[in-house]
Amino acid sequence: MAKEKKAEGSQAKGLSPKDYTACDATAQMLEKAQKDGVETAFDRAASMKACPIGADSACCKHCSMGPCRLNAKDPYSKTGVCGADIDTIQARNFARMTASGASAHTDHGMSMLDVFREVVNGEISDYTIKDPVKLLDVAQSIGIDTEEKSTQDIAQELYQELERTYTQVEGEIPFVSRVPEKTMETWRKNGIVPRGSMREIMEIMHRTHIGVDQHYENITKQINRTALSDGWGGSMVATEISDILFGTPSPVQADVNMGCLKEDHVNIIVHGHEPNLFESMLVSVNDPAMVQAAQDAGAKGINLVGMCCSGAEMLSRHGVPHAGNFMSTEAILVTGAVDAMAVDVQCIKQGLAPVAKCYDSYLFTTNPRCHIQGAEHIEFEERDPKECTDEVVVKGIARYKNRTAKVEIPNITNSGIHGFSHEYIKYMLGGSFRSSYWPLNDNIINGRIRGVAGVVGCTNPRVRHDWVHVEMVKELIKNDVLVLQTGCSQISLAKAGLLTPEAAYLAGDGLREVCEAVGCPPVLGLGSCVDNSRILIAAAEMVNVGGLGDSIAELPVAGAAPEWMSEKAISIGQYFVASGVYTVFGVTFPTTANTKFQDLLFDGLEQQGLGKWGFAVDPYEMAHLMVNHIDKKRQELGIDKARERVLVDMADRRAA
Ligand code: NFS
C-alpha cells in the first residue's frame, strides 16, 4: 500500500505526558521536567511542526541554484532550476538518506574490525577472542579453510577477508556467500550485488550530485546496492566481530526500565552503539578499587546501566540492566540520579547536554567522531580503554558525593529474557545435536506459526512513544506471527512485559502452543540495530533448510520500523526490501504520494523479484498489512490450507 497519510504528531497543548508516551517512567519524568522547567525533545516536537515540504521529500538543496521547492500536491507541475523533476529529487534525497544510514553502520563495523585487527596483532591487550567457536563458524561461512590452522591464523585470514566488506573495488563482498542462491540470482539480474561499502557510498554521493544520475530507476539500483552493502556487509561485520570478541549472546534474564537506577549507588549510564566502551566500563565499575572509592563516598556500590543500542547489545550479551530507549535518554537525566552518562556515537541528542547541566549530571563524549558542545570529552582509546572509563567512574563517584539534585526514580522495572542470537534460536528449536531451523519451518508449514516478523528501529516523538511498537507487536502475536526484535523496539516491548515466556498467553493458539513447548517468549530480543543482520541470517537459514521456497522473497515474513526516525532506519528498511522482505514503516515516509518513485518503492521493486515498502500510521493497520502479506506468501507456497486445518483443530480442542 502506498503512502497516503502521515502521523499528525500526538503532542499538543493541553495534553499530558501520558498522551505522548506509553512509558509510565518516561511520563513521570516528563511531568517532573515540566515542573523543573526543563525542555525535552517531546516539547520541541510539540512546538515545532515538521516541515511539510521536507517531509514529502519535495525539495532539493543539492546546489545553490536552489534550494528548490516543488508542490507535493501537484508533483509534476514544477521542476527544480536544473530541471530535476519530483522523481529525481525524491530518489536523490532517499539515496542520500540510505548512504548516511549505511555509513553509520558500516563505519561502526569498521571500528569493530579495527579493534579485531589490533587484538589479533597483539596491539590491543584489553580484549581477546572470547568466542573461538564463533570465529570458526564465521570463517567457514565465507569459505576460509580452517583445517589444522591456529586460532591466530584463522583470525588473521578472517580479518583480511572481511576488510573486503569495505574495500572491494570490483566483485562481491564476503558475506553475500550467505545469501540464498535464488536471491543472489535476482540481485545479479538487477545489477545490485554489493561491492565494498566505501565504493557504494562514494558512488551514491557522486550520482546524487547536481547533474549526474537523473533517472529515478537507475538511482534506486544504487540505493539497493548501497543498502545491501550495509545489511550483508557493515552491519553483519559489526555483529559477527562483536560476538567473536565479546561472546555470542544466549538467553539471559535481565531488568529493563528506569527503576534499574539505584538512589544509593553511583549510577553510570552508557548510551550509544559500539560495545567497546561499554565492555571496558563494565571492567571499570567492577574494579575493587573503584567499588571501594564509591563506598568511601557513601554509596553502596556502582550501578552500570545501558541505554539505546549498545545498551541492548550489553543486555543481550551480559544481562546488564537497561534504562530505556532513544526517547527516554533526556528523561532519565531528569531523575537526578545519573552521576555520569558516557556516550559514543549515534542517536545521541544534543539536547542531552542542557538537561544534564540542569541536574548537575556529567555527560561525557568519548568518541573522536562525536563531540557535543557543553559535554566534556574524554577520548576512548582501545589500546588503553580503562584510562577513559576509569575517569568517567571517578567523576561519577565525585558527583555522587556532592549530589545536590533532588532524586526521583520511577519505581518501575520489567524483567524479561533477552539474548536470542540466530545461533541460539537454531539450538533452541532443534536441540544441541540437531540444531536447525527446520522445527521453525515445520511449524510454519503446519500453520501453528503463521509467519515471522522483524520489528525494529527507533522511537519518535511525532507519535506516542512506545505505543505504536507495543500495539503492533501485540496484534502480530495475536495473529500467530513470531516476532524478532532489536534496538529501541525491543526495549519498548520489554517494558510492556512481552519478552517473557508468560506473555505467550497474548499469542494466538498456534504460536502459544509452540512457545509453551519450547519455553520461549513470543517476542524474541536479538540485540542492537546492527544485529538486524541476525534477522537476515535467520531468514537465509529458513530458506536453506527448505520447505518455504527458494528465496527470501518467498518466505512468509515481514519487517517493520513503526516509530522510525533516523537515516539508519531507511538503510535498514531498504536492505530488508532489497533482500526480499515486505517492510512497513510508520510515522511518515519520505516520498511524495502519486509519483513514479514512490510507486517503484511500494510496488515496482516487488515486480523485480525483491521485497517492497509499506506504510501506515495506525499500529493495527500496520500489523494487518504484514499479516496479509504473510498470508499471500503462504498461499503462493501452497501452505495456506494447513493453517485452516490447524485452526479447526484448535477450535475442536477448545470445545472439548
Ligand atoms: Ni536503531 Fe534508531 Fe538509535 Fe538504535 Fe534506537 S533510535 S535506527 S534502535 S538507538 S540505532
Structural write-up:
With 656 residues, this protein is of the alpha/beta class. The protein folds into three domains: 78-246, Substrate Binding Domain Of Dnak, Chain:A, Domain 2, CATH 1.20.1270.30; 258-401, 3-Layer(aba) Sandwich (Rossmann fold), CATH 3.40.50.2030; 422-637, Rossmann fold, CATH 3.40.50.2030. The chain has a six-stranded parallel β-sheet, with helices on both faces. Helix 9 packs antiparallel against helix 10, helix 10 crosses helix 22 and helix 19 (467-478) runs parallel beside helix 25. It is globular. The two termini are 41 Å apart. Residues 1-12 have low confidence and may be disordered. Residues 308-309, 325-326, 346-347, 457-458, 487-488, 529, 566, 568-569 line the site of FE(4)-NI(1)-S(5) cluster (NFS). FE(4)-NI(1)-S(5) cluster (NFS) binds at residues 308-309, 325-326, 346-347, 457-458, 487-488, 529, 566, 568-569.
- CATH third-tier fold name of the largest domain: Rossmann fold
Sum up the overall morphology in one term.
Answer: globular
Overall radius of gyration: 24 Å
Report the structural category: alpha/beta
Percent in helix: 40-55%
DSSP E strands, number: 16
Report the average pLDDT across residues.
94
Oligomer state equals single chain
Bound molecules: FE(4)-NI(1)-S(5) cluster
CA-CA gap between termini: 41 Å
Spans of at least 5 consecutive residues with low confidence: 1-12
CATH class call of the largest domain: Alpha Beta
- How many domains? The number is 3
| Number of H- or I-type helical stretches | 26
Percent strand equals: 5-15%
CATH architecture heading of the largest domain: 3-Layer(aba) Sandwich
